[in-house]
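Suppose you are handed only these lines of text.
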Amino acid sequence: MLQIYNSLTKKKEVFKSVEEGKVSIYTCGPTVYSSSHVGNFSAFLMADLLVRYLKYKGFEVKWIMNITDVGHLTDDNELSDSGEDKMEAASKKENKTVWEIARHYEDLFMKDLKTLKILPAFKYPRATEHIEEMIDMIKLLDEKGVIYETSDGVYFDISKFKDYGKLSGNSLEALQAGARVEVNEDKKSPFDFALWKKLTGKNEDHIMKWDSPWGTGFPGWHLECSAMSKKYLGETLDFHTGGEDNKFPHHESEIAQSETANGKKFVNYWMHKSHIVLNDEKMSKSLGNFFTVQDVMNKGFSADSIRFTFITAHYRSKLNFNEDQLNESQKTIDKFNDFIQTVLKVNTSDCEDETASIIKSAKQQFEKGMDDDLNMSVALASLFGFMKSIRKNIESGNVSKESKTAVLDFMKELNSIFEVFDFDEKKEKEFSKDEQDVINKLIEKRNKFRAEKNWAEADKIREELIRMGVNIADKK
Ligand SMILES: [Zn+2]
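From them, the structure of the protein bound to zinc ion can be written out as follows.
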Protein backbone atom coordinates (compact mmCIF):
# COMPACT_ATOMS: atom_id res chain seq x y z
CA MET A 1 0.00 0.00 0.00
CA LEU A 2 1.20 3.47 -0.87
CA GLN A 3 2.25 5.59 2.08
CA ILE A 4 2.82 9.31 1.65
CA TYR A 5 4.27 11.84 4.06
CA ASN A 6 1.48 14.33 4.61
CA SER A 7 2.88 17.83 5.26
CA LEU A 8 -0.33 18.65 7.12
CA THR A 9 -0.14 15.89 9.73
CA LYS A 10 3.65 15.62 9.47
CA LYS A 11 3.60 11.86 9.28
CA LYS A 12 3.44 9.08 6.72
CA GLU A 13 -0.09 7.97 6.01
CA VAL A 14 -1.57 5.14 3.97
CA PHE A 15 -3.07 6.60 0.83
CA LYS A 16 -6.79 6.15 0.33
CA SER A 17 -8.49 8.01 -2.48
CA VAL A 18 -11.78 9.87 -2.08
CA GLU A 19 -13.24 7.95 -5.01
CA GLU A 20 -12.16 4.35 -5.46
CA GLY A 21 -9.68 3.85 -8.28
CA LYS A 22 -9.50 7.58 -9.05
CA VAL A 23 -7.09 10.25 -7.86
CA SER A 24 -7.33 14.03 -8.05
CA ILE A 25 -4.13 16.10 -7.90
CA TYR A 26 -3.73 19.86 -7.91
CA THR A 27 -0.33 21.44 -8.42
CA CYS A 28 0.41 25.13 -8.05
CA GLY A 29 1.83 26.11 -11.41
CA PRO A 30 4.11 28.97 -12.35
CA THR A 31 3.51 32.70 -12.19
CA VAL A 32 4.26 33.57 -15.80
CA TYR A 33 6.11 36.87 -15.35
CA SER A 34 9.59 35.49 -16.16
CA SER A 35 11.39 32.28 -17.07
CA SER A 36 11.21 29.50 -14.53
CA HIS A 37 14.60 28.38 -13.30
CA VAL A 38 15.59 24.74 -13.50
CA GLY A 39 15.03 24.30 -9.75
CA ASN A 40 11.35 25.25 -10.13
CA PHE A 41 10.86 22.14 -12.22
CA SER A 42 11.88 19.89 -9.36
CA ALA A 43 8.46 20.53 -7.80
CA PHE A 44 6.70 19.77 -11.08
CA LEU A 45 8.80 16.63 -11.52
CA MET A 46 7.84 15.52 -8.00
CA ALA A 47 4.19 15.80 -9.08
CA ASP A 48 5.01 14.02 -12.36
CA LEU A 49 6.59 11.15 -10.43
CA LEU A 50 3.54 10.90 -8.19
CA VAL A 51 1.15 10.95 -11.17
CA ARG A 52 3.17 8.32 -13.02
CA TYR A 53 3.48 6.01 -10.04
CA LEU A 54 -0.24 6.23 -9.30
CA LYS A 55 -0.94 5.37 -12.94
CA TYR A 56 1.54 2.49 -12.72
CA LYS A 57 -0.50 1.27 -9.75
CA GLY A 58 -3.63 1.37 -11.87
CA PHE A 59 -5.29 4.57 -10.69
CA GLU A 60 -7.11 6.87 -13.04
CA VAL A 61 -5.44 10.23 -12.36
CA LYS A 62 -6.86 13.68 -12.98
CA TRP A 63 -4.10 16.26 -12.66
CA ILE A 64 -4.61 20.01 -12.75
CA MET A 65 -1.79 22.55 -12.86
CA ASN A 66 -2.78 26.20 -12.89
CA ILE A 67 -1.13 29.13 -14.62
CA THR A 68 -0.99 32.26 -12.47
CA ASP A 69 -1.21 35.18 -14.86
CA VAL A 70 -2.60 37.85 -12.51
CA GLY A 71 -2.67 38.81 -8.85
CA HIS A 72 0.64 37.39 -7.58
CA LEU A 73 2.18 40.35 -5.79
CA THR A 74 5.90 40.94 -5.43
CA ASP A 75 5.63 40.61 -1.64
CA ASP A 76 3.01 37.86 -1.51
CA ASN A 77 5.32 35.55 0.33
CA GLU A 78 5.35 37.98 3.28
CA LEU A 79 1.59 38.31 3.65
CA SER A 80 1.52 42.09 3.48
CA ASP A 81 -0.53 42.72 0.32
CA SER A 82 1.20 45.96 -0.47
CA GLY A 83 3.44 44.87 -3.33
CA GLU A 84 3.00 45.25 -7.03
CA ASP A 85 1.53 42.58 -9.30
CA LYS A 86 4.50 40.62 -10.69
CA MET A 87 2.88 40.61 -14.13
CA GLU A 88 2.52 44.38 -14.19
CA ALA A 89 6.06 44.91 -12.94
CA ALA A 90 7.43 42.66 -15.71
CA SER A 91 5.33 44.45 -18.30
CA LYS A 92 6.91 47.78 -17.38
CA LYS A 93 10.39 46.30 -17.26
CA GLU A 94 10.17 44.56 -20.62
CA ASN A 95 8.02 47.20 -22.28
CA LYS A 96 5.42 44.66 -23.40
CA THR A 97 1.76 44.37 -22.51
CA VAL A 98 0.90 42.19 -19.53
CA TRP A 99 -0.90 39.85 -21.91
CA GLU A 100 2.19 39.50 -24.10
CA ILE A 101 4.29 38.78 -21.01
CA ALA A 102 1.80 36.19 -19.77
CA ARG A 103 1.53 34.24 -23.01
CA HIS A 104 5.25 34.44 -23.77
CA TYR A 105 6.36 32.96 -20.44
CA GLU A 106 3.53 30.46 -20.44
CA ASP A 107 4.76 29.20 -23.84
CA LEU A 108 8.33 28.90 -22.53
CA PHE A 109 7.08 27.03 -19.49
CA MET A 110 5.08 24.58 -21.61
CA LYS A 111 8.13 23.96 -23.77
CA ASP A 112 10.23 23.13 -20.71
CA LEU A 113 7.55 20.76 -19.36
CA LYS A 114 7.73 18.90 -22.66
CA THR A 115 11.53 18.87 -22.72
CA LEU A 116 11.60 17.29 -19.25
CA LYS A 117 8.93 14.78 -20.35
CA ILE A 118 6.52 15.86 -17.64
CA LEU A 119 3.17 14.22 -18.42
CA PRO A 120 0.52 16.59 -19.73
CA ALA A 121 -1.95 17.65 -17.03
CA PHE A 122 -5.68 17.27 -17.66
CA LYS A 123 -5.85 21.05 -17.90
CA TYR A 124 -3.70 24.15 -17.25
CA PRO A 125 -6.34 26.67 -16.17
CA ARG A 126 -5.33 30.32 -16.37
CA ALA A 127 -6.33 32.54 -13.47
CA THR A 128 -7.48 35.30 -15.84
CA GLU A 129 -10.05 32.93 -17.35
CA HIS A 130 -11.65 32.01 -14.00
CA ILE A 131 -12.56 35.36 -12.51
CA GLU A 132 -16.25 34.41 -12.32
CA GLU A 133 -15.47 31.34 -10.19
CA MET A 134 -13.32 33.50 -7.91
CA ILE A 135 -16.06 36.08 -7.44
CA ASP A 136 -18.48 33.24 -6.63
CA MET A 137 -16.12 32.02 -3.95
CA ILE A 138 -15.83 35.47 -2.37
CA LYS A 139 -19.64 35.58 -2.30
CA LEU A 140 -19.71 32.22 -0.50
CA LEU A 141 -17.15 33.51 2.01
CA ASP A 142 -19.28 36.62 2.46
CA GLU A 143 -22.27 34.43 3.36
CA LYS A 144 -20.14 32.78 6.03
CA GLY A 145 -19.26 36.17 7.49
CA VAL A 146 -15.48 35.88 7.22
CA ILE A 147 -14.68 38.75 4.87
CA TYR A 148 -14.68 42.53 5.07
CA GLU A 149 -14.24 45.34 2.61
CA THR A 150 -11.78 48.21 2.90
CA SER A 151 -10.97 51.16 0.67
CA ASP A 152 -8.41 49.10 -1.23
CA GLY A 153 -9.87 45.62 -1.31
CA VAL A 154 -11.74 42.69 0.18
CA TYR A 155 -9.97 40.70 2.90
CA PHE A 156 -10.29 37.36 4.64
CA ASP A 157 -10.49 37.79 8.41
CA ILE A 158 -8.16 35.02 9.56
CA SER A 159 -9.30 35.33 13.17
CA LYS A 160 -12.55 33.73 11.93
CA PHE A 161 -10.79 30.56 10.83
CA LYS A 162 -9.59 28.88 13.99
CA ASP A 163 -7.45 26.36 12.12
CA TYR A 164 -5.33 29.03 10.43
CA GLY A 165 -1.73 27.88 10.77
CA LYS A 166 -2.44 24.15 10.82
CA LEU A 167 -0.26 23.52 7.77
CA SER A 168 2.63 25.90 8.34
CA GLY A 169 2.49 26.54 12.08
CA ASN A 170 1.80 30.22 11.41
CA SER A 171 -1.32 30.66 13.52
CA LEU A 172 -2.59 34.17 14.21
CA GLU A 173 -0.91 34.09 17.65
CA ALA A 174 2.39 32.94 16.18
CA LEU A 175 2.21 35.64 13.52
CA GLN A 176 1.45 38.36 16.04
CA ALA A 177 4.40 37.28 18.13
CA GLY A 178 6.88 37.12 15.30
CA ALA A 179 6.41 38.58 11.87
CA ARG A 180 6.69 42.21 11.02
CA VAL A 181 4.45 43.43 8.24
CA GLU A 182 3.64 46.77 6.74
CA VAL A 183 0.61 48.21 8.53
CA ASN A 184 -2.46 48.83 6.43
CA GLU A 185 -4.69 51.11 8.52
CA ASP A 186 -7.88 49.77 6.99
CA LYS A 187 -7.22 46.13 7.71
CA LYS A 188 -8.50 44.57 10.93
CA SER A 189 -5.29 42.63 11.25
CA PRO A 190 -2.13 43.10 9.20
CA PHE A 191 -2.17 39.34 8.60
CA ASP A 192 -5.54 39.21 6.84
CA PHE A 193 -5.01 38.40 3.19
CA ALA A 194 -6.60 39.90 0.09
CA LEU A 195 -9.33 38.17 -1.88
CA TRP A 196 -9.91 41.12 -4.19
CA LYS A 197 -7.78 44.19 -4.82
CA LYS A 198 -9.33 47.43 -5.94
CA LEU A 199 -7.74 49.82 -8.40
CA THR A 200 -6.43 52.36 -5.93
CA GLY A 201 -3.02 53.52 -4.77
CA LYS A 202 -0.24 51.39 -6.21
CA ASN A 203 -2.76 49.43 -8.24
CA GLU A 204 -4.48 52.41 -9.78
CA ASP A 205 -3.18 51.65 -13.29
CA HIS A 206 -3.49 47.86 -13.08
CA ILE A 207 -4.14 46.75 -16.67
CA MET A 208 -5.77 43.39 -15.92
CA LYS A 209 -9.07 44.29 -14.31
CA TRP A 210 -12.60 42.99 -13.97
CA ASP A 211 -15.90 44.21 -12.53
CA SER A 212 -17.07 42.73 -9.25
CA PRO A 213 -19.64 43.49 -6.55
CA TRP A 214 -16.77 45.21 -4.69
CA GLY A 215 -15.70 47.41 -7.56
CA THR A 216 -13.32 47.01 -10.46
CA GLY A 217 -10.15 45.17 -9.58
CA PHE A 218 -8.33 41.86 -9.69
CA PRO A 219 -8.24 38.69 -7.57
CA GLY A 220 -5.80 37.68 -4.84
CA TRP A 221 -3.32 34.96 -5.68
CA HIS A 222 -4.46 32.47 -3.01
CA LEU A 223 -8.08 32.72 -4.12
CA GLU A 224 -7.18 31.62 -7.64
CA CYS A 225 -6.09 28.14 -6.59
CA SER A 226 -9.07 27.61 -4.28
CA ALA A 227 -11.50 28.54 -7.07
CA MET A 228 -9.81 26.61 -9.89
CA SER A 229 -9.18 23.42 -7.89
CA LYS A 230 -12.84 23.39 -6.90
CA LYS A 231 -14.01 23.86 -10.47
CA TYR A 232 -11.96 21.00 -11.89
CA LEU A 233 -11.47 18.61 -8.99
CA GLY A 234 -14.29 19.24 -6.53
CA GLU A 235 -14.37 20.29 -2.89
CA THR A 236 -12.04 17.66 -1.42
CA LEU A 237 -8.84 16.83 -3.31
CA ASP A 238 -6.74 13.72 -2.86
CA PHE A 239 -3.41 15.53 -3.35
CA HIS A 240 -2.25 19.11 -3.43
CA THR A 241 1.40 19.60 -4.31
CA GLY A 242 3.77 22.52 -4.55
CA GLY A 243 7.17 23.84 -3.59
CA GLU A 244 8.07 24.23 0.07
CA ASP A 245 7.89 28.01 -0.27
CA ASN A 246 4.21 27.74 -1.30
CA LYS A 247 3.29 26.42 2.14
CA PHE A 248 2.88 29.83 3.70
CA PRO A 249 1.02 32.02 3.17
CA HIS A 250 -0.26 30.54 -0.11
CA HIS A 251 -1.40 27.05 0.85
CA GLU A 252 -2.33 28.04 4.39
CA SER A 253 -4.66 30.66 2.93
CA GLU A 254 -6.07 28.27 0.32
CA ILE A 255 -7.10 25.98 3.20
CA ALA A 256 -8.82 28.84 5.06
CA GLN A 257 -10.78 29.90 1.96
CA SER A 258 -11.75 26.47 0.66
CA GLU A 259 -12.69 24.92 3.99
CA THR A 260 -14.75 27.96 5.01
CA ALA A 261 -16.49 28.32 1.64
CA ASN A 262 -17.23 24.62 1.11
CA GLY A 263 -17.59 23.45 4.70
CA LYS A 264 -15.44 20.42 3.87
CA LYS A 265 -11.89 19.22 4.26
CA PHE A 266 -9.95 20.75 1.37
CA VAL A 267 -7.04 18.34 0.82
CA ASN A 268 -6.37 14.85 2.12
CA TYR A 269 -2.61 14.72 1.36
CA TRP A 270 -0.32 17.72 1.09
CA MET A 271 3.04 17.18 -0.58
CA HIS A 272 5.81 19.77 -0.62
CA LYS A 273 9.05 19.67 -2.54
CA SER A 274 12.14 20.66 -0.55
CA HIS A 275 14.32 23.49 -1.76
CA ILE A 276 16.94 22.85 -4.40
CA VAL A 277 20.31 24.47 -3.96
CA LEU A 278 22.75 25.02 -6.78
CA ASN A 279 26.38 24.38 -5.90
CA ASP A 280 25.39 24.84 -2.23
CA GLU A 281 23.71 28.20 -2.85
CA LYS A 282 20.09 29.11 -3.22
CA MET A 283 19.16 29.55 -6.87
CA SER A 284 18.30 33.16 -7.49
CA LYS A 285 18.69 35.90 -10.01
CA SER A 286 20.42 38.20 -7.55
CA LEU A 287 23.09 35.62 -6.76
CA GLY A 288 23.77 35.19 -10.45
CA ASN A 289 23.15 31.46 -10.36
CA PHE A 290 19.86 31.47 -12.18
CA PHE A 291 19.69 28.78 -14.85
CA THR A 292 16.82 27.80 -17.06
CA VAL A 293 16.41 24.25 -18.34
CA GLN A 294 17.79 25.44 -21.66
CA ASP A 295 20.84 27.02 -19.97
CA VAL A 296 21.72 23.68 -18.38
CA MET A 297 21.26 21.89 -21.69
CA ASN A 298 23.46 24.44 -23.44
CA LYS A 299 26.24 23.37 -21.09
CA GLY A 300 26.06 19.93 -22.69
CA PHE A 301 23.77 18.11 -20.25
CA SER A 302 20.83 16.13 -21.52
CA ALA A 303 17.24 16.90 -20.54
CA ASP A 304 17.04 13.28 -19.37
CA SER A 305 19.88 13.82 -16.91
CA ILE A 306 18.02 16.80 -15.40
CA ARG A 307 14.82 14.76 -15.21
CA PHE A 308 16.58 11.77 -13.69
CA THR A 309 18.43 13.88 -11.11
CA PHE A 310 15.20 15.43 -9.85
CA ILE A 311 13.06 12.30 -9.77
CA THR A 312 15.66 10.06 -8.14
CA ALA A 313 16.65 12.41 -5.31
CA HIS A 314 14.08 12.05 -2.56
CA TYR A 315 11.63 14.94 -2.73
CA ARG A 316 11.86 15.70 0.99
CA SER A 317 15.64 15.88 1.09
CA LYS A 318 17.56 18.98 0.12
CA LEU A 319 19.17 18.35 -3.27
CA ASN A 320 22.41 20.07 -4.13
CA PHE A 321 22.07 20.41 -7.88
CA ASN A 322 25.41 20.58 -9.66
CA GLU A 323 27.39 19.21 -12.58
CA ASP A 324 28.56 16.15 -10.64
CA GLN A 325 24.96 15.21 -9.95
CA LEU A 326 24.07 15.56 -13.61
CA ASN A 327 27.08 13.48 -14.67
CA GLU A 328 26.16 10.78 -12.16
CA SER A 329 22.60 10.71 -13.47
CA GLN A 330 23.79 10.43 -17.06
CA LYS A 331 26.04 7.50 -16.10
CA THR A 332 23.13 5.71 -14.45
CA ILE A 333 20.89 6.30 -17.45
CA ASP A 334 23.67 4.95 -19.71
CA LYS A 335 23.95 1.88 -17.50
CA PHE A 336 20.24 1.16 -17.90
CA ASN A 337 20.39 1.71 -21.63
CA ASP A 338 23.51 -0.40 -21.99
CA PHE A 339 21.66 -3.17 -20.18
CA ILE A 340 18.69 -2.82 -22.53
CA GLN A 341 21.02 -3.04 -25.57
CA THR A 342 22.59 -6.20 -24.14
CA VAL A 343 19.14 -7.75 -23.70
CA LEU A 344 18.02 -6.67 -27.17
CA LYS A 345 21.06 -8.37 -28.71
CA VAL A 346 21.04 -11.53 -26.59
CA ASN A 347 21.00 -14.91 -28.35
CA THR A 348 18.24 -16.86 -26.73
CA SER A 349 18.28 -20.60 -26.17
CA ASP A 350 15.75 -23.27 -25.34
CA CYS A 351 16.16 -23.45 -21.62
CA GLU A 352 14.46 -23.13 -18.30
CA ASP A 353 15.75 -20.06 -16.50
CA GLU A 354 14.93 -18.11 -13.36
CA THR A 355 14.10 -14.84 -15.06
CA ALA A 356 10.45 -14.83 -14.02
CA SER A 357 11.29 -15.10 -10.34
CA ILE A 358 14.09 -12.49 -10.66
CA ILE A 359 11.61 -10.03 -12.22
CA LYS A 360 8.99 -10.82 -9.61
CA SER A 361 11.29 -10.10 -6.72
CA ALA A 362 12.74 -6.95 -8.35
CA LYS A 363 9.23 -5.65 -8.96
CA GLN A 364 8.26 -6.31 -5.36
CA GLN A 365 11.35 -4.53 -4.04
CA PHE A 366 10.87 -1.65 -6.44
CA GLU A 367 7.26 -1.17 -5.37
CA LYS A 368 8.17 -1.54 -1.72
CA GLY A 369 10.55 1.43 -2.10
CA MET A 370 8.12 3.53 -4.09
CA ASP A 371 5.23 2.73 -1.74
CA ASP A 372 7.31 4.12 1.10
CA ASP A 373 6.79 7.80 0.31
CA LEU A 374 8.38 7.43 -3.16
CA ASN A 375 11.70 6.27 -1.74
CA MET A 376 13.67 6.20 -4.96
CA SER A 377 16.99 5.03 -3.53
CA VAL A 378 15.46 1.75 -2.36
CA ALA A 379 13.56 1.41 -5.63
CA LEU A 380 16.70 2.01 -7.70
CA ALA A 381 18.83 -0.38 -5.63
CA SER A 382 16.39 -3.18 -6.46
CA LEU A 383 16.83 -2.46 -10.16
CA PHE A 384 20.63 -2.52 -9.98
CA GLY A 385 20.40 -5.94 -8.32
CA PHE A 386 17.96 -7.05 -10.98
CA MET A 387 20.26 -6.02 -13.85
CA LYS A 388 23.17 -7.81 -12.24
CA SER A 389 21.22 -11.07 -11.95
CA ILE A 390 19.96 -10.92 -15.52
CA ARG A 391 23.45 -10.14 -16.84
CA LYS A 392 24.72 -13.21 -15.04
CA ASN A 393 22.11 -15.34 -16.81
CA ILE A 394 23.03 -13.79 -20.15
CA GLU A 395 26.72 -14.43 -19.58
CA SER A 396 26.07 -18.08 -18.83
CA GLY A 397 23.93 -18.33 -21.98
CA ASN A 398 20.76 -19.19 -20.08
CA VAL A 399 18.08 -16.94 -21.49
CA SER A 400 14.96 -18.19 -23.21
CA LYS A 401 13.00 -16.22 -25.79
CA GLU A 402 10.14 -15.71 -23.29
CA SER A 403 12.57 -14.43 -20.67
CA LYS A 404 14.08 -11.91 -23.05
CA THR A 405 10.59 -10.56 -23.79
CA ALA A 406 9.69 -10.53 -20.11
CA VAL A 407 12.81 -8.51 -19.20
CA LEU A 408 12.11 -5.96 -21.93
CA ASP A 409 8.45 -5.73 -20.90
CA PHE A 410 9.46 -5.08 -17.31
CA MET A 411 11.90 -2.35 -18.40
CA LYS A 412 9.13 -0.77 -20.49
CA GLU A 413 6.79 -0.85 -17.51
CA LEU A 414 9.45 0.90 -15.43
CA ASN A 415 9.96 3.41 -18.18
CA SER A 416 6.37 4.57 -17.75
CA ILE A 417 7.82 6.13 -14.58
CA PHE A 418 11.43 6.99 -15.50
CA GLU A 419 10.88 7.91 -19.16
CA VAL A 420 14.61 7.94 -19.96
CA PHE A 421 15.13 4.43 -21.37
CA ASP A 422 15.86 3.79 -25.01
CA PHE A 423 14.50 0.62 -26.62
CA ASP A 424 15.82 1.18 -30.16
CA GLU A 425 18.30 -1.50 -31.01
CA LYS A 426 21.54 0.23 -31.97
CA LYS A 427 23.36 -0.88 -35.08
CA GLU A 428 26.85 -2.31 -34.73
CA LYS A 429 29.46 0.36 -35.32
CA GLU A 430 32.48 0.05 -37.64
CA PHE A 431 35.84 1.10 -36.19
CA SER A 432 39.03 2.05 -38.01
CA LYS A 433 42.28 0.19 -37.36
CA ASP A 434 43.51 3.03 -35.10
CA GLU A 435 40.27 3.09 -33.15
CA GLN A 436 40.44 -0.66 -32.69
CA ASP A 437 43.94 -0.32 -31.25
CA VAL A 438 42.73 2.23 -28.70
CA ILE A 439 39.75 0.04 -27.80
CA ASN A 440 41.89 -3.06 -27.38
CA LYS A 441 44.29 -1.20 -25.12
CA LEU A 442 41.41 -0.01 -22.96
CA ILE A 443 40.02 -3.53 -22.74
CA GLU A 444 43.45 -4.88 -21.70
CA LYS A 445 43.70 -2.18 -19.07
CA ARG A 446 40.22 -3.01 -17.83
CA ASN A 447 41.05 -6.72 -17.63
CA LYS A 448 44.05 -5.85 -15.52
CA PHE A 449 41.93 -3.82 -13.09
CA ARG A 450 39.41 -6.64 -12.93
CA ALA A 451 42.14 -9.13 -12.12
CA GLU A 452 43.20 -6.83 -9.29
CA LYS A 453 39.55 -6.58 -8.20
CA ASN A 454 39.74 -2.81 -8.71
CA TRP A 455 36.11 -2.59 -9.80
CA ALA A 456 35.89 1.21 -9.61
CA GLU A 457 38.65 1.72 -12.18
CA ALA A 458 37.34 -1.14 -14.32
CA ASP A 459 33.89 0.47 -14.34
CA LYS A 460 35.38 3.79 -15.37
CA ILE A 461 36.88 2.16 -18.43
CA ARG A 462 33.62 0.39 -19.22
CA GLU A 463 31.89 3.79 -19.16
CA GLU A 464 34.54 5.25 -21.41
CA LEU A 465 34.04 2.39 -23.85
CA ILE A 466 30.26 2.84 -23.78
CA ARG A 467 30.76 6.48 -24.71
CA MET A 468 32.89 5.32 -27.65
CA GLY A 469 30.10 3.00 -28.72
CA VAL A 470 31.63 -0.22 -27.43
CA ASN A 471 29.49 -2.60 -25.43
CA ILE A 472 31.37 -5.09 -23.28
CA ALA A 473 29.90 -8.30 -21.90
CA ASP A 474 31.95 -10.40 -19.47
CA LYS A 475 31.26 -14.02 -20.23
CA LYS A 476 32.64 -17.18 -18.74
ZN1 LIG B 1 -1.57 27.73 -5.73
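What can we learn from it? Residues 309 and 329 are 6 Å apart (CA to CA). The first strand starts at residue 3 and ends at 6.
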